[in-house]
Structure formats: structure tokens, C-alpha cells
Amino acid sequence: xxxxxxxxxxxxxxxxxxxIAIRIHPGFWVVAALLGFGSGDNAPExxxxxxxAVLISIVIHELxxxxxxxxxxxxxxxxxxxxxxxxxxxxxxxxxxxSRRSRWQQLFVSAAGPAAQLLLxxxxxxxxxxxxxxxxxxxxxxxxxYTADPVxxxxxxxxxARADGALVELEIPASEEGKQPTIVPAIKLELLKGLSDxxxxxxEKCDRDGNQIVDENEIQSLRFAYMIPNPTLRWFxxxxxFVSIFWALLNLMPVYPLDGGQIARExxxxxxxxSPVEKSLMLSVATGVLIGIWALSTRQSMAGLxxxxxxxxxxxxxxxxxRMGGGGYGRY
Length: 332
Description:
This protein is an alpha+beta fold. It has helices spanning 26-37, 44-71, 100-130, 154-164, 197-206, 222-225, 231-251, 259-271, 276-297, 301-323, and strands at residues 13-17, 20-24, 76-81, 84-89, 167-172, 182-188, 213-215. It contains 10 helices and 7 strands. The strands form 2 sheets. It has a 4-stranded mixed beta sheet. The chain has a 3-stranded antiparallel beta sheet with strand order 5-6-7. Strand 3 and strand 4 (84-89) form a beta hairpin. Mean pLDDT is 86; it is low at 328-332.
């Protein structure tokens, strides 16, 4: 959940999914397209693929909230706009009490959105693995064997080629007259033994000239050879996983008004600690500042500015809360 519902316009898109009304404000398309414009090669199909990935991931996120609302007998609607998405309940009477049960229910509703996105990412990754494809994303952060990524390293294939006697020397003709030809190591595919179908398919993709020999220049594209062949579909899947994993994890940070900030508040409230809301706001300020500084230091200016703005907003809420006397003692 993020900020407030935008006003209606004549350009809103309306539809229903799983019985839940969804409205898409035109600002959503504008911001998603701008983010896509700076993410890939800026080709029209690349931008459209990114926008589609953002749309699907955020709808799934908000459906997670809305379906949990339904579980607690609360009807809701979904709005997508320039700041992301909102699952807006028609009534919060089932969750508006101060009982421990209602607190846990609010916590589960907040957690359902990011959980739905992460589940979507898991389903996509499993589907790719069943098809023998690498996603091109998670193996940048985790060893391939931990995620069942089929991609093999160049070093492991060189080692197998050497053991199978498939490592040969290939003469590359000189590009200019009078220069000596270049001798480079290469792998003769027909001599490799025991390759899986996935590895064979990848090496054949690397063999661009079709001579059944993969030289050291061709094998540099090995990682891409394990991915989906169609570049637009490959970018769509990559973007869908990126948004579903990393945006979900950012949304779980304990910063208001992100889902993580809502979760932190409810955890403080059910824990019985003194001044739980004040503590959750203090955590929100500190976390927002730290993430903002880190993001700016890694040249992620948009994320950095966003978290610093959220930290400032939380500080203002904290100051207002203390002025109202809520930070002294007691349940809040």
C-alpha cells in the first residue's frame, strides 16, 4: 500500500480480476514507461516488455492484499498509479479493533503483497528450470547450484573438454595482409562426451559459424546461450523477476508507508513493548536514511531520493505523534 488514492480521470482503465475491481490511472503507464526507457536498449518492444512486467508484478502484489482482505470478509478494490499500487478496503471494521487477533490479521494483509510477488518469481524460475533455461538474474547473486540454474561456467566446460580430448587449437586467419594467423584454444563439439541436452543446446548456440567448433571468442556468449532465445521475451522475464524480487524486498523494508513499515508497526504492537508506534516510526526514520544513503552511494539516485523522502515523512509523523502525547507511555 502506498500513499493515497489518486483522483479518477477519463483515461482510467477498468477491469475485474478474480472478482476484484481494478483501476489503472494513466500516471501508472507514464512512470512505468519512463523506468523502462532507462532500463534496457530503449527499443519500443523493450519498453513495452518492461511495462508489461511491471503491470503483472504489481497487480499480483495488490491481489495478495485484496485476497487476504477477502479472507477476513472485507471487500476491496485495486488502484494502480504513478507511485505503484493500492489495495483499498471498503471497510476495515474487521481489522479496526485493538485485539491481538486483529493486529495479526493486519500484519498478514501487509505481508501478503510482497509474498505474492515472491511466489510469482518462484513460479517463473521453476518454469524456466523445467524448460532448461537460465533466468539470467538470480545467478548474479547466488551460486547457480543453489538455484538449479542450468548455466555452466566456461572453466567447467574447458575442464571437461580437456578430459575428453576435445580441446583443440584453432587457427584464425590474419585480418590484414602480412600478419601472422592467430592460434586460439577451441572445443570440438563432436568429441565432447556426456553433455546434457541443455549443455549441447547452449554450445550449439555459441557455434555461430556452424563448424562444430566453439572458439574462445564464441564461448564468451555461453551464459546468454542458456537463456530464452527471443530477446524481447528474455527481457520481459528478466524484468518480471527483477521487479517481483527486488521491489518486493525493498517494499519489506520497515519504512512507512511501505508494507514493511506496516508490518513493523504491527509487530511492535503485538509485542507489548512500551510506546510501540513511536519505536516503529524511529525504526522507519533510521532505516529510510540508511537505505537512502546506500542507494545514493551506489548511484541509484531514484531509490535513494525516495527512501530519504520516506524517512523525512516518517520523522514528521514521529514529531506529530510526540506533540500529541502519544510517545509517552501506554499501548501506542
